[in-house]
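User: Here's a chain of 442 residues. Predict its fold as tokens.
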Amino acid sequence: MKILAHPFTKNPHRTLLALSLPVLISMTAEPMTALIDTAFVASLGSVALAALGVGTTALSSLFWIFNFLSIGAQTEVAQADGKGQPEKAGGIASLALSMAVGFGLLLILLILPSADWLASILGASGDVQAEAVSYMQIRLYGAPAVLLMLVSFGVLRGLQDMRTPLWIALGVNALNILLDWLMIFGNGPFPAMGVAGSALASTISQWLGALAGVAVIATKLGLSLSFSFSDVKRLLSVGGDLFVRTGLLTFFLAFTTRAATRIGADAGAAHQAIRQVYVFTSLALDAYASTVQSLVGYFVGRDLLIWAKKVVRVGASWSFWTGLALGALMWFGRGTVIGFLVPVTAVGVFLPAWAASALSQPINSLAFLTDGAHWGTGDYRFLRNAMIIATIVGVTGIWMIDLGTPRALLWIWIVTSAWAATRATFGLLRIWPGIGRSRFNH
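Assistant: Prediction complete.
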């Protein structure tokens, strides 16, 4: 395809939005399901909700660590597509999917016997710990499916096919909600399973989504097990920096959950409600980042950095204004969130922390957008180093908070905002003016 035939070169804003909208819907489908899941479990009381918070934090942290497979595959496929090399794209997809299965099985073997220890590390004890362990042990059997879906979506978005992941995500999450209703409360032929029912519903639906994603990639690119050890080594090398970065990101979020849980059950429940919405808005902003990653990767593959820079400018504008809109919606919609997600006893600690999270949305928008830009150029080491600095800032801030003070949860979310601001600052400076060995300087 001639470069001038690419839609972005003719209609940048419309193309960015047309590609981002399906990603937005597909990315927000899962956290929307998690919000509904949280609302279901919230009706069971603070203990059940706090247990859900511990379980989802632990497993999300573990799953996100392996998100490097998706990010690396998306960038490599996008650049191969830009170079007109479909065979190379197919090889990358096959390798990433195989590694997803391997790492998923490894997670089952390593984490299943240590779920109790993991829950205690996150500050859970007593009934909260028991229910969290039950949740994690069931969800772990879906680990390979989660990683397969991550890779499938990354490969398809690398090809700028944003709609197929959308349809798979909608189907998976619709099924998840239905199974939640059946299994948590014991409707139809199912017994009431509580928090464990939520875990089983997620596991079943994710396996069906994983199979659908693999089938689509097999049709589009073909699958092969003929890749060499050098191919594995290369993807692991690319993923090494991303592994550290994502590991630090998830460590920090888990660290905040541990601190909130140690404050008490009400603070833990309030934090879980805020965290679910925070994840929802972050993934909504990440829709722009994912689109920017694919477009930047494509134009880098074409060796046309002038258009890669244009992609970032357009994406940053849309992302920032969306962040402002999300922050306003969060604040004015706080009553609805309280009604659905927050136990009555937790409202007092919830509101100040909620305000801090709402105010951080424009900052989050730039942090995510610049991540996408640097993923597209393959600047993984810089992102790793920026995350190291941000995590040091964040963990130090959380460590300094007196968890016995009435405003402890508020300070946890203020520190979380500072953590995001550090990432955004480094990300922007790498592009404008282009500090260090920035690809955007070439």
